[in-house]
Amino acid sequence: xxxxxxxxxxxxxxxxxxxxxxxxxxxxxxxxxxxxxxxxxxxxxxxxxxxxxxxxxxxxxxxxxxxxxxxxxxxxxxxxxxxxxxxxxxxxxxxxxxxxxxxxxxxxxxxxxxxxxxxxxxx
Length: 123
Prior knowledge:
Layout: H1 3-6, E1 12-14, H2 26-30, H3 37-50, H4 52-59, E2 80-83, H5 84-93, E3 98-100, E4 106-109, E5 118-122
């Protein structure tokens, strides 16, 4: 997603206690005010139910490869830049509230002991 898409968003928050939305059109899910971040988070929540091992990796601080730019499979020599979409799905996998501020850059360090990969998620 480009920076322009997130310029008008100050913060996206949704409680983990909220049910996953149903019956929305593709445009409503991906082109709403949140630019699809809630959808990415909901995908993470659904994947956590289907793939509990993947959810456990995320909960332990790993940065697994997901559909969005951000995850890591092997040791990196440099920092990797990801997207807010990745961070939203990762929060859903972890069973966390969706809590993103597109105006702020987030740095995550993968917990895998075989590397020290850093993910910078920003718009």
